[in-house]
Design brief:
Elements lengths: L8 H17 L4 H28 L1 E5 L4 H11 L15 E3 L2 E3 L6 H7 L2 H11 L3 E9 L15 E3 L4 E7 L10 E3 L23 H15 L4 E2 L6 E6 L4 E3 L11 E8 L3 E3 L10 E2 L23 H15 L6
Antiparallel strand pairs: 1-9, 2-3, 3-4, 4-11, 5-12, 6-9, 6-11, 7-8, 7-10, 12-13
Helix pairs in contact: 1-2, 3-4
């Protein structure tokens, strides 16, 4: 477990002064005071070590401390929406055999994972500001998604105000298609389509991916893999290069949830939709929607040819062009 302490150093100083003063009047509590101060210093050191690793490597792994009953309920409740014979979930923007976007609209456990107090506290410690969840993605097996940076899908002004958190709903091994990422690649400059000499369009995505592979070879980045235990959370910054590793055993599952977070009170934009000018948007923050009118249809669309083609188009948009917006 990684404990997080307040950044307010003056508060720590005031507490230490208070305990020292109290000890003058009651010497019997001096051992208690020493214990409290030692704990404060230990927690402070762990917090600084966590921030240093995040800055240097571009990611950290923590224990989310989520109750396993929440993880199990999330996995079990969404199971019917996965696979070739799945049900179509209602009130979500998109879903397919291995992927449900924004299931927090229909599932309280998805929301609880996205709003995990330990994760939110850790993010605030890492970024120095409050971070809020705005998108969830739930998976049954590995994505095998090409290596990319999240900032090409969701960017911000100022740059770097976004991050991703991957929570394992079961133990993740090397044959399940774990997350694959390149430590220190977050130190590359901001890379939007125009920065790379490309048109800002999903059609440029394959070229973007090819450029990233060249950069990985040029800089000698070495991959690491998210082999994490059930309940652990892997936090990565917006610019680190990452994707899904090959799933060696297709009989295995890889139940997991990705949540994307933005810093509050900045500007948010989508590079793939910003050909002529930046396409800014307002995030739909994860929240309890009980009592709200559903934002998405009350029932799945009828199985018409038009709906089928739209679904195929959406899959191509994500799998070929990597546009997950």
């Amino acid at each position: 477990m990684i404990a997080i302490v307040s950044r307010n150093k003056s508060m720590q100083t005031d507490l230490a002064s208070y305990y020292n003063l109290a000890a003058k009047f009651d010497p019997s509590i001096s051992s208690l005071i020493c214990g409290v101060i030692d704990t404060m210093n230990t927690v402070k050191g762990e917090s600084e070590e966590l921030r240093d690793k995040f800055r240097e490597q571009g990611y950290v792994v923590i224990d989310s401390q989520l109750d396993h009953s929440v993880l199990d309920a999330c996995k079990n409740d969404l199971e019917k929406f996965f696979g070739p014979d799945r049900e179509d979930p209602v009130h979500v923007p998109s879903s397919e055999a291995n992927r449900i976007q924004d299931a927090w609209y229909i599932n309280q456990d998805v929301r609880k994972i996205a709003e995990c107090p330990v994760v939110l506290q850790t993010l605030e410690e890492l970024y120095g500001v409050r971070m809020r969840p705005f998108q969830t993605l739930n998976f049954r097996v590995g994505t095998q998604q090409p290596i990319h940076a999240d900032s090409i899908h969701f960017n911000s002004v100022p740059f770097g105000g976004m991050c991703g958190v991957w929570v394992a709903l079961e133990d993740i091994g090397p044959d399940q298609g774990p997350l694959k990422y390149y430590p220190k690649s977050q130190n590359l400059p901001e890379m939007n389509y125009p920065d790379l000499g490309l048109q800002a369009s999903p059609k440029s995505y394959p070229q973007y991916l090819s450029i990233l592979q060249d950069l990985i070879e040029e800089h000698g980045f070495e991959p690491e893999y998210g082999l994490i235990k059930k309940g652990q959370a892997l936090i990565w910054c917006a610019n680190i290069l990452h994707g899904g590793a090959k799933q060696n055993d297709m009989s295995l599952t890889r139940y997991s949830q990705v949540t994307h977070y933005y810093q509050e009170n900045i500007r948010y934009w989508r590079p793939s939709q910003s050909n002529r000018k930046q396409r800014f948007f307002k995030p739909d923050w994860v929240r309890d929607v009980t009592g709200e009118e559903p934002k998405y249809p009350l029932k799945p669309p009828a199985p018409t040819i038009g709906n089928f083609l739209r679904r195929v188009k959406g899959k191509i948009k994500r799998d070929v062009f990597g546009d997950y917006s």
